[in-house]
C-alpha cells in the first residue's frame, strides 16, 4: 500500500538521525522510482552564477546511488557538467524541451540569475552565432516546465553571487519565474536528500509539496536549528563557548541557528557523517534569504563578562534574544 501525502511528509520530518531516504521510505521509494523509470521523466538542469557545489552535493548521494537515479530513473536531458554533448547540440536540446516537452519536464536551476544588461553577464549556450543567456533560458523553460526546483541558496535567493554590491544584478529563480511556484531547496550547498525527496514527491503525487513562506518544502525545513541543536543544553544553562573548540553554545562565536530553518541536525551531510555545528563551526544560516550579507560576520569572538548582560546576538541583525546569565566556571 502506498503512502499518503501526509504520511510521506511525516516520515521526512520525523526520520531518525542517520536514516537516508531509501531506508526511511523503503519499498515505497523503490516503487516510485521504478514507476518513474518507466516514463523516464525528462530533467533539464541549468547552471547560472554558482560554484557548482549543489551538483557536487547531489553526486555524493549514497542511497539511492546517484548513478541509479541518473541512468535508471530520470532522463537527464541537459546538465553542463555531466552531459556528453557540447556546442550548438546543447542549445538544440533546450529548444526541444521548450517546444516539444511542454509541461512534461522538471526544470532544475542551480545558481543565481544575472539580470543586468539583459542577462549578458551569464551565457550558457550559443547557436548560429547568437548567445543564449541564463535569464532568457530560465524565462522560457520556466513557463514550459511541469515543476521548477531552485537547487541551493544561490538559485533560491541569490546567495553569494547576489551579495553586495551585486554588480551583475543576480536574483533568485522566483524573481524570474513568476507564473508558477518555485520549490526552493535553499541550503548551501543543497542537500541531496532534499532534492531526491522533492522529485519523488512530485512524481508520486503529481503536485509540489507544501511550502513555507520562503518557498521551501516544510518537510525539510520544519523549525529553527537552535530548537533541536545538541548544544541547546549549554544555552539553557548559560554556558557559552569563547573560542572554537570550547564546550558550550556557539552563539557568541557567530552561530545563527536561532534564525536558520532546516533539518541539518538530523539528516547530516556526507551520508550523515557530520554537519556544521557537530564539526564545531557555528551555523551560518545558509538556508535563509538573508545569506550571506546579513549572516556576516560568519565567525566572531565576543567578550563574556558578568558585568554586562547581553540581550541580543550581535551577529544577527534585529534579532532579540534573552540570553541566560553566564555561569562562573572553576
TrEMBL record:
| Segments forming domain Cytochrome-c3 hydrogenase C-terminal | 221-299
Q: Where is the NADH:ubiquinone oxidoreductase-like 20kDa subunit domain?
A: 51-201
- UniProt subcellular location: Cell envelope
- Which of this chain's residues are annotated to bind [3Fe-4S] cluster? 264, 283, 286
The residues that the entry says bind [4Fe-4S] cluster 1 are: 51, 54, 154, 188
Cofactor(s) for this UniProt protein: [4Fe-4S] cluster; [3Fe-4S] cluster
The cellular component terms of Gene Ontology attached to this UniProt record, alphabetical and capped at eight, are: [Ni-Fe] hydrogenase complex; cell envelope; ferredoxin hydrogenase complex; membrane
Q: Which UniProt keywords apply?
A: 3Fe-4S, 4Fe-4S, Iron, Iron-sulfur, Metal-binding, Oxidoreductase, Signal
> Its domain of life?
Bacteria
InterPro entries attached to this UniProt entry: Cytochrome-c3_hydrogenase_C (IPR027394), NADH_UbQ_OxRdtase-like_20kDa (IPR006137), NiFe-Hase_small_C_sf (IPR037148), NiFe_Hase_small_N_sf (IPR037024), NiFe_hydrogenase_ssu (IPR001821), TAT_signal (IPR006311)
A molecular function GO annotation: 3 iron, 4 sulfur cluster binding
Give a Pfam family name. Answer: Oxidored_q6
Q: Which residues bind [4Fe-4S] cluster 2?
A: 226, 229, 249, 255
Alphabetical GO biological process terms: anaerobic respiration
Q: How is the quaternary structure described?
A: Heterodimer of a large and a small subunit.
Family classification: Belongs to the [NiFe]/[NiFeSe] hydrogenase small subunit family.
User: What NCBIfam families does its record include?
Assistant: hydA
Q: Identify this protein by name.
A: Hydrogenase small subunit
Per the UniProt record, the source organism is Pelotomaculum isophthalicicum JI
**Taxonomic classification, please?**
Bacteria, Bacillati, Bacillota, Clostridia, Eubacteriales
